[in-house]
Amino acid sequence: MWPRLVASKVLKRLGSTNFVADFPSDGSEDLLEIPHHFDKKSHSSGDITFSDPHEETQNYSVFVNTWNVGGVVPTDDFNVDDLLGTCHTSCDIYVFGFQEVVPLRAANVLGLESGRISAKWNSLIRQALNKKGKENTNSPKNGNANIGQLFPQEFSCIISKQMVGILISVWVRNDFRSFIRYPSVSCVGCGVMGCLGNKGAVSVRFQLHQTSLCFVCTHLASGGREGDEKIRNSNVAEIFSRTTFPKGSSLELPRKILDHDRVILLGDLNYRISLPESTTRILVEKGDWNALLENDQLRMELMDGQVFEGWQEGMIKFAPTYKYYPNSSNFYYGRPEVKRGEKKRSPAWCDRIIWYGEGLKKQLYARGESTLSDHRPVKAIFSTQVRVSRKLKRLQSFFLSERFDQITGQLEMHSEYVMED
């Protein structure tokens, strides 16, 4: 009876749909309204027509990072630039997924999250993104440039949610924040007793213009023994079936993960390499990624297509991300010179980013080299097509056109003339 009561209490907390954001949202926010005088059929300016009801597509860039930090709290001077890498341009959307932001002890699994550690990660992310945005501010090269390119690209957090050790934080450029609506979260625990949050997923979703995006931050069951991959498969099936987003006031957005237009799953998926440990280590030392990937459990599951039917992953051209000695550059656990009795962990690509749905194109798939934990972070950059109201898109183009500059210039001259009078 006692375990059931504990599970019931914890599940009620895990089911919370509350999340942290830089601005309030009740889920009913609409897209940026087009001024009424632009919404009339008779209005036109050159080849700009504001009455066309059809949609166009617009490309957005999405940065995704996942990292199991092993319960280590970042220092105040931790450099998030190590996670971002050396990209020369800012992306439009940034998604940071962390696992084990707190040690997975019973007190943390059963207790309430204080929010202190997630607040620290968000503070570090904010500093890094806004610094990067200001460094990459460029003047628009043509009339189709984004409004945000005219000004320093500052970022805001639209969703941040923690469940025990799993934390996901989503950031967007301020200049299109108004085009985002219906942000929401859903938590599923798959850990102790099959329901607690030491393992599981925190999923977030929102609508950007006319396209729904869903990001699933996961931490699946560990274990390198034969058959443990089936437990991970079961975790995934549970996450897909049990994740349900709040219905709210929107009748147009789906409630299940796989029904969204674009879905990206990231996290410590814990899939291993189905080879003897000694063979795995030899191939790692040789850098023979192809031979290792032929026996990679997640790759085999993606090809099998039962749990991950329709999912895709970019080509892996980097060393396994697990398991390292913390604060060491390239030493995996289980070296010959380690002390007797020390646990051995065969190297594996535990940390992965995969996607589902059309309209996503991978631009980058790589690992970082931060040595804070026993995992290395993994990052990906995608370009995604988003359906945009043609009326709204052409209005945006109008605001950046020479015609708009002429109008605003005349207004400024008129304003100066009035003030002089």
Q: Can you walk me through this structure?
A:
- This protein has 421 residues and is of the alpha+beta class.
- It has ten helices and 14 strands.
- The longest helix is centred in the N-terminal third of the chain and has 20 residues, at 116-135.
Could you give the topology of this structure?
Blueprint: H1 2-14, E1 44-45, E2 48-49, E3 55-68, H2 81-84, E4 93-99, H3 106-110, H4 116-135, E5 155-163, E6 166-173, E7 180-189, E8 200-208, E9 211-219, H5 228-242, E10 262-268, H6 277-286, H7 289-293, H8 297-304, E11 311-312, E12 351-356, E13 360-367, E14 378-389, H9 390-399, H10 402-420
Parallel strand pairs: 3-4, 9-10
Antiparallel strand pairs: 1-2, 3-14, 4-6, 5-6, 7-8, 8-9, 10-12, 11-12, 13-14
State the gist of this model.
This protein is an alpha+beta fold and 421 residues long. It has ten helices and 14 strands.
